[in-house]
Amino acid sequence: MSRHHILPPRGTLLVGADLHGNLDDLSRLQSLFLAEPRAHLLLLGDLVHGPAGWTREHDPALYDYEDRSFEVVQRVHALRQAHPGRVHLVLGNHDHSHVGGEHTSKFHPDEAAHLESASPPTSASCCARCSATRCCWPWPPAEWR
Asked: Parallel, antiparallel, or unpaired for β 40-43 and 13-16?
């Protein structure tokens, strides 16, 4: 993993940001990415920490999705493995909180502690859905650090 990467001067660049555990949004980006054989996908952080149940009830127009942070991470990990050099990440403050950064509070007083204390889907079922060759929980995988 490099801290600096120069993308090709021409071609398709898909950019996504602030997924916050929204697997449907990631799936849409993935579909667009896979439709362009030479496209690059750039995710600008905050893959994790989706809305709490009370938030979805209070503001369903904005938070109309379930927090699928584990599966989002698994899917991104699988995409990076399947398409080396074409899927790029910039860690956001929510992601950074899992590797030593300041802990965030959006839907829970300590988002990192809340997610890390949650039981992830079993690695077999989670990895099967995202096609990863190995489970990448705990998150982020060591090679992303």
From this structure: parallel
Q: What one-character DSSP code corresponds to residue 8?
A: P
Task: Specify the pTM.
Answer: 0.75
Strand partners, 88: 42
| Structure-token match 């039981």, residue found | 119
Convert the pLDDT of each residue in 26-45 to its tens digit: 999 999 999 999 999 999 98
List the chain domain ranges.
Answer: 13-144
The residue among 84, 103, 99, 104 whose CA lies nearest residue 41 is 84
Element (H, E) at 42: strand 40-43
- C-beta separation of 122 from 71 below 8 A: no
Give the DSSP per-residue string, 87-140: EEE---HHHHGGGTSPPP-SSSSSHHHHHHHSPPPPHHHHHHHHT-SS---SSS
Integer CA distances (angstroms), 82 to 67, 87, 100, 101, in order: 24, 9, 28, 28
Can you say whether the dihedral through the CA atoms of 112, 118, 122, 125 is positive or negative?
A: negative
